[in-house]
Amino acid sequence: MIGETIPVLGVLTGLVVPIAVFTWLYREEKGKREAVIEIAKHLDDPAKVERLLGLFDERKKAPIDYRRGGVTTLSVGLGIYLLGAVSFGSMFEEIGLLVGAIGFGTMIAGYLYPNTGEELTDAVEEFEKR
Known about the structure:
The protein is mostly helical. 85% of the residues lie in helices and 0% in strands.
């Protein structure tokens, strides 16, 4: 009896979790959309409407910091490697080395490609000096 219900529960979990997340995010954003519509009805200036929409925009405007992500990935790779060395075996060591190499490459990319406005300005000024 239990042996037959486990696969069914596994399939249902694969369906229920995405639907629950979608419903949760929809309900969370619904109030914001309604508030923006009500406020926009009473504003006559399109610039004010754009500024209002900018306030509700939650996307990150800062560029990706590859150095920080690289250090994090390198640390995860080191942790996986040590986990394999201590208890789980050579497969985890190899996976840890792979993840660590990806983190190291990402960190190097962060130093090769400047991402903040100040770093870009410094790079342009240095290039113009040549």
